[in-house]
Amino acid sequence: MFYNSTRNSNVKVSSAEAITQGISVDGGLFVPESIPALSLEEIRAVGEMKYADRAAFVFSKYLTDFTDAEIHYCTDNAYSAKNFETESIAEIAHLFDGTYMLELWHGPTCAFKDMALQILPYFLTTSAKKINLDKKIVILVATSGDTGKAALEGFRDVEGTSILVFYPEDGVSPMQKRQMKTQEGENVGVCAIKGNFDDCQNGVKAIFTDYDVKKQLEEAGLMFSSANSINWGRLVPQIVYYISSYAELVKDGEIELGDKINIVVPTGNFGNILAAYYAKHMGIPVNKLICASNVNNVLTDFINTGVYDRNRQFYATVSPSMDILISSNLERLLYLMTGKNDKIIRDWFGKLASDGRYEVTEDVKKKLGEEFWAGCCNDEETKAAINAVYGKYSYTCDTHTAVAVKVYEDYKNATGDATKTIIASTASPYKFSAAVLEALEGGKSDIDEYAKVDRIAELSKLPVPAALADLKNKSQRFNDVIEKADQKQYVLRTLGI
Ligand SMILES: *Cc1c(COP(=O)(O)O)cnc(C)c1O
């Protein structure tokens, strides 16, 4: 299996090269040249394996330059009881009639990003060895809150790597900020940006593709890579849990092999839902992929009209990990939907960079409508959804998952579709205590962060993850705040070049 760039189909690299580079030199994203197909029997067999082996099976289709031993080295280390609180790794909560919560937040940082970022460092170091890379890898991360912490935990003290994370100063929850500022490890750095997530991500992308920076880095024996979902090594682990959960539902007798399901995903950078799209095209039977957004609803409008327009107000919401106006992974979807038309992708993403807007062809609009349904909701509706789910099922979900719950309700009301449905539950409610507690109690409370955590524990009966409880007394190591224009200088200075 080789990988092409969305902006140049002639680029052809191995998975080890795609993972170490992160992004193609032309600014495009790496995409596998075909989507491997699984038979229904193969999917059923996945249900008989433990999670690490399910992952290894899926990776064997994409990382064909890795040996079996290399793949198992990665999966056995990443998906073990030492990193995840639940044995199943991706736990399915059966709550509603025919609706399943796929809880992806039982890893060390309590968000679904751990599913990929626990394994990415193993992929990366294994890839670097395979291609005889003699450079130290510098991971640059832009985060809307959860990727940063998950990447820091994944890469801390990993030999041959260092990691630097940028987050929007006022764009993350207090717990997310605390998680990053207290990060331990000798090879880690964290810095706040006076701007929003898009500013952080644009800055990082610009540094990645800056020729002068690249040269200076090379001279210093360093190279950049990415832990954002622009890196294929971040995306491929996310395909696993959709295949895994389908197989699990078959095994549990909740669905028959071959039955279609819907998948609802609370969406920001379009990585998680793109992984669901890949799982569908590999062979799990899916009716609709439901894309749920908060009031930063650029994707809702795009899927419904075919016009992507980021020229709009940016809102800070109670679901900050989805406060994004430029969804990077859409580029991969559109590359696939245009039949790998790199020219049209260059045109559209050139327009996005220059005018903030592009419109896709009628053919692509039709395909979007066939595959996806999109909806959005505001903060009040998000909190009402948390309250309603708690009232009805005694289940406490976080703000991002609540957006998915609300949009799924809207979908059912609009379509009458009764297909069984998996909702991707993307974070622990304890990461967003203020909004979650306000939703549960029906009003704001001015008790401190950890008092809120304790109160949620009383109400939800959900154990407080040790990783969050432990942060209470840790000292804050990282307090830098910079202007967005200074990001490049900051990186060079931190690296000592
Ligand atoms: C990152 C994140 C999302 C959005 O996922 P994308 O892959 O960026 O679309 C949703 N919820 C939570 C909790 C997240 O951390």
Termini separation = 37 Å
Give the class-level CATH name of the domain at 91-110 and 233-468: Alpha Beta
Can you count the helices? 22
Give a count of the beta strands, DSSP E runs of length 2 or more. 16
CATH architecture of the domain at 91-110 and 233-468: 3-Layer(aba) Sandwich
| Binned strand content | 15-25%
- The rounded Rg comes to 21 Å
Bound molecules: pyridoxal-5'-phosphate
Classify the secondary structure makeup into a structural class.
Answer: alpha/beta
Q: Averaging pLDDT over every residue, what do you get?
A: 96
CATH topology of the domain at 91-110 and 233-468: Rossmann fold
Task: Record keyword descriptors for this entry.
Rossmann fold, six-stranded mixed sheet, single chain, 22 helices, 497 residues, 46% helix, 16 strands, 17% strand, five-stranded parallel sheet, binds pyridoxal-5'-phosphate, alpha/beta
Short description:
The protein has 22 helices and 16 strands. With 497 residues, it is an alpha/beta fold. Bound molecules: pyridoxal-5'-phosphate (PLP).
Explain what this protein looks like in three dimensions.
The protein is of the alpha/beta class and 497 residues long. It is 46% helix and 17% strand. It is built from 22 helices and 16 strands. Helix 12 links the parallel strand 10 and strand 11. Helix 1 crosses helix 6 and helix 17 crosses helix 18. The protein is globular and about 60 Å long. The chain binds pyridoxal-5'-phosphate. The site of pyridoxal-5'-phosphate has 16 residues, from helix 12.
